[in-house]
Amino acid sequence: MALPRESALKIVEVLTESLPYIQRFHGKTIVVKYGGNAMTEPELENSFARDIVLLKTVGLNPVVVHGGGPQIGDMLTKIGKDSKFIDGMRVTDAETMDVVEMVLGGLVNKSIVNLINQNGGKAVGLTGKDGNLIRAKKMLLSRTNEKGEAEQVDIGQVGEVAGIKCDVLDMVIGSDFIPVIAPVGVGDDGASYNINADLVAGKVAEALKAEKLILLTNIPGVMDKNKNVLTGLSTQNVDELIADGTIYGGMLPKVGCALEAVKGGVTSAHIIDGRMPHATLLEVFTDAGMGTLITNKKIKKKRQA
Q1: What global pTM score does this model have?
Q2: Which of 174, 188, 222, 274 could join 38 in a cystine, given CB atoms 3.0 to 4.6 angstroms apart?
Q3: What is the domain-level CATH number for residue 174?
Q4: Are 121 and 178 a contacting pair, CB within 8 Å?
Q5: Mapping DSSP to helix (H, G, I), strand (E, B) and coil, where does residue 238 land?
Q6: What was the pLDDT predicted at 302?
């Protein structure tokens, strides 16, 4: 059945608009952090997988880093273990770390790999232990006690990224596969560490000298004090927004991750709404884009949200 003329023309317009971006980003690496609502709603799951497959098909090199906090919490509940958080970080003892590895490196990772493969891609699942991909060091939280004194709090096997070893990623990308990375790192002592997926995505993007770091979130982007989405920001703009309190609270770690990646050599970072179908394609291949773009490059004009 033939498409109505208006629908056919719209498709042509979309393809024409995307062409310069496909040409510009051909052969470039794009690191996408995937999690939250987009990981739990079937329609958004398939939308995300198709976006990643399309990026690879037109010549870009997508790398997926995923989270899985809700899935870890669900599994801990099933085995009768309570989840404990300090300053938003999951306290991770040895038993919890076993669950984290099983859920992130097994259930969630293989589910995403299968989803991409079912949509016509070729994905390979990895954890930070594969080829020493993610070197980790123990994270200690700094807090002020009741006496007003600074103290460090041990939250178990929670880590920071000490380094990224790209050998495995280079091999996978060079073999025309799509890497899907679970954020489990390994320390010098061989211990496993649970690491925030945003942090891993940022460091992977830096190590690969990525063109873009895309963080899928459950908000439209970075907003000003009037709740308007801020679209094109320089790193200096972001520093100023943090200093004057516009960016605060739970948004600080995500923005900080994006900012550090851009300052570390990633061309641009994007904080976008993962609840929107095909959010990744809209950001990469359209003039307007969506969400917040952060870059070190001079911004010629503000994008329309």
Answers
A1: 0.91
A2: 274
A3: 3.40.1160.10
A4: yes
A5: helix
A6: 47
Give a yes or no: residue 227 inside a domain: no
Q: What is the pLDDT of residues 93-136, one digit of tens each?
A: 999 999 999 999 999 999 999 999 999 999 999 999 999 999 99
| Rounded-to-integer distance, Cα 71 and Cα 291, Å | 26
CA–CA dist 128, 191 (Å, integer) = 11
Pairing of strands 178-182, 61-66: parallel
Question: Is 222 inside any structural domain?
Answer: no
Long-range contacts of 85-92 (CB under 8 A, 24+ apart): 86/141, 86/153, 86/155, 87/141, 87/143, 88/250, 89/139, 89/141, 89/155, 89/158, 90/155, 90/158, 90/194, 91/155, 91/156, 91/158, 92/155, 92/156, 92/157, 92/158, 92/194
Distance CA 14, CA 12 (A): 5
137: Cα within 13 Å, side-chain hemisphere? 6
**pLDDT average per 10 residues of sequence, the chain (305 residues):** 66 82 95 82 89 96 95 93 85 94 95 96 96 94 75 90 95 95 95 95 97 92 84 87 84 88 94 90 87 78 46
Domain that holds residue 121: 62-193
Residue 84 placed within a domain: yes
d(CA 118, CA 111): 10
Is 29 domain-assigned?
no
Burial class (CB in 10 A: 0-12, 13-18, 19+), 100: buried
Number of independent structural domains in the chain? 1
* CB half-sphere exposure, 68, CA atoms < 13 A: 27
Return d(Cα 245, Cα 253) in angstroms, integer. Answer: 14
Query: Taking the alpha carbons of 246, 250, 253, 258 in that order, is the dihedral positive or negative?
Result: negative
At 128, the amino acid letter reads G
